[in-house]
Amino acid sequence: MHRNRVKGMMKMADFMTHDLLGEQALAVFPAAAQRAAALHPAVFRWGLQGPDPLFFHKVYAGSPLHKLGNRLHEERTDALFTVFAESVNRLTDESHDIASAYFYGFLCHYALDSTIHPYVYYQEHECIRAMPGENASAIHCQIETDIDCALYDRYKGDHLHLPTAAYQMNDQEIAVVSVILHHLIRCVLRVDVPTSELRPAFAEMLACQRLFYQGGRGLSRPARTVERLLGKGPLLTSHIKTGLPQWDALNESHSPWRNLWNPDVVCTESVIELFELAKDKAAELASSYAAQFDSGWMLNLSYYEPFDNGNYRRQKP
């Protein structure tokens, strides 16, 4: 498995993996969630990407919101969804529908990250043990890129296609989503980021993904040249999709692995099986929240697993 060195890469399930999960989960979501996604499909799709757009704002200038993206994956998951759900519940009319679509997509992002990350972190840790000089973040990124390519081939049986048109939000949708993200960051992380800084992040992420998915091998060589000139490691090449992985990225052989926060338990699930578990988790959460929104009574659900479940580089919360 080819590995690159990099500093400060994005640690997340990849773009199309989240898109695929949302597509499949939506089919078993409650009617209210399906209605919200049908009314605002681009907003639902951006919800599927969770906090990840924060990684791509002004990425050429060092991605100033990167740390906030990491913190939303690591900190106060209970508070995040409590604040988010209460915001959806308070809004009315079109703003409520937009916020609902974003919320249900965000649930999918959480369900997938928290389910698949233990496997990814385990594979990352094993690579670090075998190649101690390599950068952990780069390895993490490469593993998720490989999973992305293999999953898309498994479910679509076609060349990776980025549905850029499906992610185009109108002005009202961008405004509502940016305000919600601003509110989440302020309430959960106690950091005030102007909505003017958040609004461009979605288009910036999509532009980067277009390069990663459509550039292919033709982009790899010039990208490496740029990386050498900048001297900051392969900030691009770890994300570029160049074909199917040459290792069992989906663990279809059911090799043993462990959640490194609970290393005594041996797991053998494949990524396909984890994907199904994530879909079930998302559907269960969506049903619970849909019932709460319908009744007007909001409950504070407990999230025992953060987005970065199994992250051996920090202590289990």
Automatic annotation (TrEMBL):
Domain Phospholipase C/D: start-end pairs: 17-178
Superkingdom of the organism of origin: Bacteria
UniProt xrefs under Pfam families: Zn_dep_PLPC
Protein name, UniProt field: Phospholipase C/D domain-containing protein
Originating species: Butyricicoccus pullicaecorum
Taxonomic classification: Bacteria, Bacillati, Bacillota, Clostridia, Eubacteriales
